[in-house]
Amino acid sequence: MEQTDILISGAGIAGLVAAAGLAQRGFRVCIVDPAPPVDDVAQAGSDLRSTAYLRPAQALLARLGLWDALKPEAQPLAALQVIDTHGTPPVERARRMFSPSDVESELFGWNLPNWRCRAILATHLASLPGVDLRLGVGFVSMLTRDAGARVVLSDGTSIAARLVIGADGRASSVRQAAGIGVRVRRYGQKALSFAAAHDLPHEDVSSEIYNSGGAFTTVPLADHQGEPASAIVWMQDGPRALDLAGMARDDGARFDAEMSARAVHLLGDMRRITPVQVWPVVTQTADRMIARRVALIAEAAHVLPPIGAQGLNTSLQDVAALLDRLEDDPGAPAGLERYSADRLRDVAARASAIDLFNRVCQSDLAAVQALRLAGLRAVHDMAPLRKQVMQAGMGRDVPGVLPDAPRS
Ligand SMILES: Cc1cc2nc3c(=O)[nH]c(=O)nc-3n(C[C@H](O)[C@H](O)[C@H](O)COP(=O)(O)OP(=O)(O)OC[C@H]3O[C@@H](n4cnc5c(N)ncnc54)[C@H](O)[C@@H]3O)c2cc1C
């Protein structure tokens, strides 16, 4: 039987970053995923979301020697603008700009399309010593004992590992095999994700534009064929979201007009430049983040509504905690307990805050909409509160557990 120190199920962005970090800590890592990354945005299976990597996440990527490969494709995020609107078509009620200088930084972070990020990371990992990247092969089952785990893969291979990490997304097979349940809160809401070109430059500013139904978020991308471009996340009540997705398919011009109006023409006329993907919006938290010889990270452990760039940024905090907490025997109970203690509270706090925020933003009750407007003004206009909220949203800086990445 094959042997490894750590078997990671799922080579999404979180799994790939974890593999790089754990190999850098000296572990032998085998990472498997049935779905290879795509090398073109239009290919089937392309993840059309983008991720705004906030400063702590970027620091982790730099520490692991991954940032140099990603940086050329990353668009800086120089400021965050929040706009409160009401009615249909939306009319602006208030606008506030948040600056990274409040958290003693020049930038909030950098934005990168997920499909591209995953492809770059997979290419980098394929040549990394200590990492055995197996694409086209998935986790099927496992048997765990106190001393280790035996994993069976979809190609029939059996591998003995001292730790199994579930990084296999919201329907995690590792989580199910470990008998860990989930708590799910639904909102009857969906998020459309795609990219759009627009007439006006984004000036590296990301905008969250609120109206009943949820947030409409623009996040700066690099220019597309000479035009300014942004990643869009458009949250709406489910039936309206499905209508919009159908409109994008059948009547592109009408969709573009609806989108430009929903964005209060902030970026001028907007034109969709990729297909639309539809994501269910849920808050889902695993009952536990560990089991015998098992750790869960990222969406296998927590799924958050796509507001405030919390999802993958929270996942990279999991990776930083794993690197910091695991013992030399990576599946030893004491290290796993420390990892769990470190992450459970932060994940629960973020899930509660985003859940409440999303409910307030989604509601069409006049009183709740007034509360949203008052909340925006209070958070922005009171400097200490503004700084506290922004710091909490950014997350912790990564602990210095790793040696600096070797320079190439
Ligand atoms: C519309 C939208 C916008 C978002 N924007 C942001 C943002 O700006 N910032 C942010 O921080 N977060 C954002 N998020 C959240 C972020 O995109 C997700 O948290 C992140 O992509 C999930 O990464 P993951 O690695 O956990 O899961 P996934 O990307 O789902 O990866 C899981 C991997 O596991 C693999 N897998 C599945 N089953 C198996 C198996 N049996 N064996 C092996 N592998 C398996 C899959 O093929 C997949 O590659 C957004 C989410 C949405 C819905």
Describe the overall structure.
- β14 (214-224) and β15 form a beta hairpin.
- This protein has a domain at 2-51 and 114-184 and 284-362: 3-Layer(bba) Sandwich (FAD/NAD(P)-binding domain).
- The protein starts with a strand and ends in a 14-residue tail after the last helix.
- The chain is α+β, with helices and mostly antiparallel strands.
- The radius of gyration is 21 Å and the shape is globular.
- Residues 401-408 have low confidence and may be disordered.
- The strands form 3 sheets. Strands 5, 6, 12, 13, 14, 15, 16, 17 and 20 form a 9-stranded mixed β-sheet that branches.
- It is built from 11 helices and 20 strands.
- α1 (13-24) runs parallel beside α4 and α8 runs antiparallel to α9 (333-362).
- 48% of the residues are buried.
- The protein binds flavin-adenine dinucleotide.
- Residues 9-15, 32-35, 49, 51-52, 114, 138-139, 167-169, 173, 191, 193, 233, 279, 298-299, 306, 309-313, 315 line the site of flavin-adenine dinucleotide (FAD).
Task: Briefly say what this structure is.
The chain has eleven helices and 20 strands.
Name the descriptors.
408 residues; alpha+beta; FAD/NAD(P)-binding domain; 9-stranded mixed β-sheet; 8-stranded mixed β-sheet; 11 helices; 34% helix; 33% strand; disordered C terminus; binds flavin-adenine dinucleotide
- Our Rg estimate from Cα atoms comes to 21 Å
* Hetero compounds: flavin-adenine dinucleotide
- Count of individual helical segments: 11
What CATH architecture label of one domain applies? 3-Layer(bba) Sandwich
SS elements, strand count: 20
> What fraction, in percent, of the residue positions are helical?
25-40%
Report the end-to-end length measured between terminal Cα atoms: 35 Å
Name of the CATH superfamily of one domain? FAD/NAD(P)-binding domain
Structural class: alpha+beta
CATH domain class of one domain: Alpha Beta
Mean pLDDT: 91
CATH fold node name of one domain: FAD/NAD(P)-binding domain
Q: Could you describe the largest sheet, including whether it forms a barrel?
A: 9 strands, mixed
